[in-house]
Amino acid sequence: MRLAENIKLTDIIDMSTLHSVQERLGKLATHVPQITTDAEGNPVGKISNFIPFCKLIRSSQKGSRQCISCDRQAGLLAMECGKRRIYNCHAGLIDCAAPIIVNGHYVGSVLGGQALIKGEQTRDSIDIEKISRDFDIPLHMLKMAVEFIPLVSREELQEYVECYSFLANYIDKIGVSRLAREQLGKEYKEKLLLEQKAKQLELKTIEAQINPHFLFNTLNSVARMALLENAPQTEELIYNLSDLLRYNLRNIDRFPKIRDDINNIKRYLSIQSLRYSDRVSFEIDIAESILDFRIPSMIIQPIVENSMIHGLEAKTEGGKIEILGYPIRDRNIELKITDNGKGIKPEALNLIRQMSTTPTPGLGIGLINVYDRLRHYFGDKCGLVIESAVNVGTSVSIRIPCVQEHP
What's the confidence (pLDDT) of residue 294? Predict the structure, then answer.
């Protein structure tokens, strides 16, 4: 068992529900004092059936602090044992504590008792003179209050413990149920956000390629014209562009083979090589053993585009992009895209690593969408690691499981 780091008692049960339960329990067991505290010993909700002696001590500021400290220690000890316990309170009474443990986290306790054990203790055993001095409480008031301390058998004390355990278990069940509902709500919101982002990405693709049949027919016409005009480079450029657009449209929601995706990347790089001439070179080395495994569409290309646009755009010579792919342990694949561009500033790199859902100026949403889609498809089985140094370059490593069939 451990202390809850982020869960508080008031997070898992609303006060109106707790008050209602405490009130009902107080009416059913009018002789059983009860208090519910948080993990720090602070009272939460109502205090039920307290005896005059304990009310008097808690009416003192010093006494109240001591009671809270005592309750905290009792709750922590019960938590460490993982079960209810009977103990001596700071004022000399017998008390009980039942820990409230939600999903393995200690969030508080239900405490009470405020009695002496018949045949083993007497009211004279309470040092009321010391209590009077320590907590600034008039001695004559303590003398009257001590007469109302109940003397109970160990069997009766066990009934107290059962009441506290019942309430602690009830709060525990409410807490587990509430946390489960919140988790489901969080997962639903995340799924909805991912679907919205996927739709946005799809719309952006459609907007960029309105009436694709018209576009392809036009490109083919221009390519034939380039052939007639004896312009082979222009013809090749246009056919590569046409194939690139057709591939991306066809594979919006598919899992193409790595072989096909790499061929498409080669088309993209072929187009870029005409634009950048000899300023940028490309190297692709993909292990033959992984070529027939599948990958979500539009995973590699956005990263390569980032390298071109953000890394190498301003480079006048010697630019290089390297794309590697190889199998790793536990039937996983690693794909690595490296460039020797201008790199990413540390503060911008931190933002990317956090994968914020809020687009950051200058960063775009490419990497964030790649990360979100990988997590959507593979969960914890995927990984995305970004390393970068200013004026040295950037490396993006993608780890995904081996997928042989279209999901």
Answer: 92
| Residue found by looking up tokens 């598919």 in the block | 254
Examine the domain organization and report whether 39 and 145 are in the same domain: yes
Does the predicted TM-score (pTM) go above 0.90? no
Residue pLDDT, tens place only, 344-383 = 888 878 877 765 444 444 444 567 778 878 888 888 888 8
Portion of the chain with pLDDT greater than 90, in percent: 21
Cα(334)–Cα(290) distance, integer angstroms: 10
| Residue found by looking up tokens 């990317």 in the block | 352
Instruction: Find residue 325's DSSP bridge partners.
Output: 286, 335
Mean local confidence (pLDDT), 22-48: 75
Write the CATH number for 387: 3.30.565.10
What's residue 359's pLDDT?
A: 41
Interior CA angle at 128 toward 127 and 132, to 5°?
Answer: 125
In-domain check, residue 284: yes
Number of domains in the chain: 2
In sequence order, what are the residues at sequence separation of 6 or more whose Cβ sits closer than 8 angstroms to the Cβ of residue 58? 50, 64, 67
Distance, in Å, from the CA atom of 342 to the CA atom of 360, rounded to the nearest integer, reads 18
84 lies in which domain range? 2-184
Q: Which of 184, 210, 234 is the last residue in one of the domains? A: 184
Contacts of 205 (CB under 8 A, 6+ apart): 248, 249, 252
Note whether 114 and 24 are same-domain residues: yes
Rounded to whole angstroms, the Cα distance separating 304 from 288 reads: 21
pLDDT in tens, 203-222: 555 555 445 555 565 666 66
* 276 & 179 share domain: no
